[in-house]
Description:
75% of the residues lie in helices and 3% in strands. The chain is mostly helical. The chain has a domain at 280-495. A two-stranded antiparallel ribbon has the order 1-2. The model has no long low-confidence stretch (mean pLDDT 90).
Amino acid sequence: MTPDVATPFPLLSLLLWLPLGGTLLCLLLRHSSNLCRWISLLTTLTVLVVALGMAVSSIGGSGWLFYEDAAWIEPFGIRYTLGMDGISLLLVLLTALLQVAAILISWRQKQRPALFYALVLVMETGIIGVFLSLDLILFYLFWELMLIPMFFLIGVWGHENRVYAAVKFFFFTLAGSLFLLLAIIWLYLLHGGQTGDYSFALDALRQTVLTPGQEMILYIGFMLAFIVKVPLFPFHTWLPDAHTEAPPAGSVDLAGLLLKTGVYGMIRFAFPLFPAAAQKSLPFLAILALVGIFYAAWIAYVQTDMKRVIAYSSVAHLGFVILGLAAWNQLAWEGSLLLMINHGITTGGLFVMIAMIQDRSGTRELGKLGGLWTVFPNLSAFFLLFCLSSLGLPGLANFAGEILVLLGAFKADPLWGGMAVAGVVFSAAYMLRVVQSALWGESKKLARNDDLAVREWLILVPLAALVVLLGVYPAPVLEFLREPVSLLLETGGMP
């Protein structure tokens, strides 16, 4: 059920289109690289401030915290409908925060800087649009929009094998998206044929009467797009290559944000639209999640490139997220979504730090690193903090989500919970290997020997503070999650 009256001031549209406005300014002023840097930074900071203001005003709220609805392409039943509940609010906040970090870590971008910053801002509009859209065509447009800037960020500004990685990323995600589009169109036609009301509205399409066979086929069509984007084993092979070749901002966006859109698509669209099929798929999702946890941990342990280690660790951590969803109870879902937020902060911080380490050492290879703690004590302290959070150290961000997922998994099936606990041990092994290889041992030859600059402090301090705060006191985040999670589990998530 949607609100009777939309939000008076279009704050959601402001959030959505501000980055695109910054994109246009960057392109118009492309001959001034310095001006484009500041435009992109001020744009992302403005989005962050607006999102924080919306979060503060939403404390204690319920249902759709913000909602907008307007006619768009009426002959085809397509509307401009945006909604924000507690889940989408947290994901928009995460997007706004990490986009500021992405701009700052790319501050010295020299190759076509105006176009680079413009693409990062387009990416922000696409990601926020995914988290706010309640019309399936609108959602699909933003879902596809994310693909374009990331393709160019990897293919133009990436490393040696950037073209291969960009094309692989493009075809994997595009293939999944085509199944999604076909499923959306078929569902639209079925609903219109039954009711005479041809609509792409999520709330309307949930009322479509489907045979078990139709529901399962449509569910698979939606899920193929989402599990590729997560990515869930065995559809994960595009991710390590994309991370390895992407520029720092691309890696931050990939790990911190794009992977989360797949999980969000599951809980906002696939599960509510096809509840019976979703219930049947839960054991299968749990098996794939558990296999992914162990497989990714094993592969991560033998990697020599730090980026590839963290890329495979993302597959493992998102495996925990999917396991929590498969457990299908309040505790596990709250843990999954909390872990999703915390993983974005922790892994985004790790990719930022890998860029800083490479900038100083000229390499990401663990065998060529060592002794960083002696030369860069401040940088090393932050790196150690993010690594410890990633391996699930109690008191830091990832542990808070993982422990709720484990408790919820044990509640659903003790075997799932027991196997997932073993997966936590594996994650500790590969992260401690990274810490040992990079921070301790004999110092290697370095390109630079200066510790953190002011700009780098500005990136790391907020991320590190959140890693500690959300590990020690995750209650404010869980408060935003509690009601929408309950609605998703009980009624399909429409307030």
